[in-house]
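Ticket closed. Logging final result for UPF0102 protein C7H79_11385.
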Amino acid sequence: MKGSEAEQIAVSYLQQQHLVLVAQNYRCRFGEIDLIMRDGVTLVFVEVRMRTNDRYGGAAASITATKQAKIVRTARHYLTVFNNFESPCRFDALLLSGSSGQKIEWLRDVFGE
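Final structure:
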């Protein structure tokens, strides 16, 4: 399964949970954020991870401290560009596992500052 397919599964799942898609694959010089969603008034920066097996620690283990720092810097850039410092924010991870991403684990507020 490709990353784009995993992200589409993630978008569909989160929309079923009543989140609204704001942006997908937001890129800047600091890095990329897979999904930016709204959960009520909260802006949610979502990292999507897909792993077909847990041999190397699974999907959650792949979100390293370095990756987290890049996501936080990219989120700051997004907030600056769109002048959106008023909204509360959080960082979530959506973990997909299994051969076709059939197992979904949504971790809310998993890291930040």
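The mean pLDDT is 87. No further action required.
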